[in-house]
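From the shared-data thread, chain only:
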Amino acid sequence: MNQYIAEFSDHLKIEKRQSPNTVSAYRRDIKRFASYFSDKKISAVTASDVRSFLLYLREEGLAASTVARSLSSVKSFFSYLFTENQISENPTEIIESPRPWRKLPSVLSMEDVDALLAAPDTRTPAGLRDLAMLEMLYATGLRVSELVSVKMSAVDLKVGYLRSLGKGSKERVVPLGDSARVAIEDYMLNGRPVLLKNRSSADMFPTRRGVAMTRQGFWKILKQYTVKAGIEGSVSPHTLRHAFATHLLERGADLRSVQQMLGHSDISTTQIYTHILQERMHEVHDRYHPRA
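Structure, as tokens:
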């Protein structure tokens, strides 16, 4: 089984060009599946066995979204094995994937975003870096993995655009906007050289040790500024991505343009933000209409 998992991981990485995080998630799901059937040959697994595994995950208290993702991983794994003639029958072929219930993402108000962007101390090199990262995140809607991976060569301040490599190694170009350009330029001139201390780096956002910022590191930084800004509730890097999309749509942007800037391959993924706008319209109507 371990050999099959290793080959499948290579298939995802090389042929499907999936990101390291996606490959890791698939591998984790399939290893859990393999552990559940440790005494059984892969060719002997049946559809009933797969359903038994899904039931086991639910009994373990895992969320419905996690169970659905595990099934998706297992289905992809068996589809690969069947295509490669490693098994004679695909036991997951008749198992339908549940239609996921999509939770509306929480969105920061424009006032909260302003408070968050005002939180870094720009008298320090780290503060200049943090403001540049927050401004870039809100201006472009990048995923946090894309943000911490930004290279110096990917940013063109003269033209005001950023090149980003997203899921599936798909490149997209996103405008930065004036506020982000000013913050990034200030950071590049007065913050980044001090943080690097004569060291060279292709990464746009190094730490004080001169290495690239990690997702976990930025998450901690964001949490500190959320508290400092007095914003209630949980704020993650993805919350700013949601704010980017929602605020654009609120101000009249078309859905297709927002889809391209977010890097969504399917516009149905972007359409969740229209539901947020509808919810807000209902709230405004209920609050202010005299006959609501």
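The chain has 14 helices and three strands.
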